[in-house]
Fold this protein.
Amino acid sequence: MYQIALCDDETAELDKTVQMLKCYGTIHSATEFAIECFACADELIDRIKAGKYDPDLIMMDIYMPEKLGIEAARELREMGNSSRILFLTMSREHALDAFGVEAIQYLVKPVSEQRLFPVLDKILGEMKDTRKKYLLLRIDGRIQRVPVSNIVYCEAQGKTQYLYMSDGTQYGLRRTMAEVYGMFSGYREFSRVGVAYIVNLEHVDSLNAQELQMDNGKRIYLPRGSYQPLREKYFGYYCEE
C-alpha cells in the first residue's frame, strides 16, 4: 500500500483531488493507497518530523498562506525526507524552483484526470520498482527506510534480531527470526544459516565447509550439514545473476 499525502489550504481542491485518486484506484484495483489530507504545510512537516508519518508521495499546492509549498518541500529535503513531491498549483511561476527541491512533476491547475492519471502511472510504477530495494522498519519508535543491499547479515540475540549494515550501523528488531526471514522472502540474495543467522549472499567474501566470511570481516561458523545446500544456493544465485 502506498501512502499519499495531499496538502492544500483549499478544501474544495483537496476534495477534488481525493475523488480523482479514488477514481484512479477503482481503475487500477491492484494498486492500493491510503490518502491523508493536510490543510497546511506545517501540519504535514510536523507529522513527518515526529516520525509518525512517511508518505510515499506528497501532492502539494504551492500557494498556501502560512508557507509556500516550495519552502515546505525545501524544509522536508533538509530534514532528509525523500518522499516524491508532485506540485499542483495555479501558476508556472515556481516551475524552476520545483527542480531545486527534486519535485518529480509540476501540474498547473485545474488538473483533470486525463492529465493526472498518466503522471500517477509513471510515479507509482517507479515507486513499485524502488520499493523492492528498501525495507520499511520501525526502529526506536521511528519509521526507518533501510536499503536491502546494505544489509550484510542478521543475527539472533535472545528475543532481539540485529541487522548489521555495510556502514557499520546495526538495528535491533523486536521480532522473531522467522518474522525477519519472512521480510526477506522476496529477495533471492538472503539465505538462512542455522537458526541464528540470515546472510546476504551479495556480502559473502568466501565460503568453505567450516565457515563463511562476510565482507565486513564477520566470520560465521556453519552448522553441521549446512555447507552443501548453502554452497548450491550461493553458486546458483551468482550463476542466475
Observations:
- The chain is about 35% helix and 30% strand.
